[in-house]
Amino acid sequence: MIFYICGDNNVKFDQLYVKSQNEFRYMNFQERKYFCNLKRLVRLQMLMEGDFGKKQTSITLTNFQTWSRMQPQIRAHRLAVVEDSGIKQKKIDNQLTIDAKGHH
Question: Buried b / exposed e across 34-64, counting CB within 10 Å, b at 16+?
């Protein structure tokens, strides 16, 4: 619910506010959850309709695109690190095997 406050309507607004708070307390969990999500959606819509929302959307899309381009590079780097550590471990294992054979 959206209330507009003008002049001497503060008393009426306070009464409506108290009434809405009481109704909110008597709602069950699912209704409260739905009501809160609805309020968030309305706030998000208000933000998105303004210039700030458009700018934020643009920035978010740019960040998603950058992240999408970086993902393959990150995967390739991780794979290279894993392969490199595997090769190093094999060299260490081979050296330990050679040392063990040399001492017997």
Answer: eeeeeeeeeeeeeeeeeeeeeeeeeeeeeee
**Do the beta carbons of residue 93 and residue 85 sit within 8 Å?**
no
Ordered per-residue pLDDT tens for the chain, 104 residues: 444 444 555 557 677 777 777 777 777 777 878 888 888 888 888 777 777 667 778 888 899 999 899 999 999 999 998 888 888 888 888 888 888 887 65
Round to whole Å and give the CA distance between 8 and 68: 55
| Residues 6+ positions from 53 with CB-CB distance below 8 Å | 47
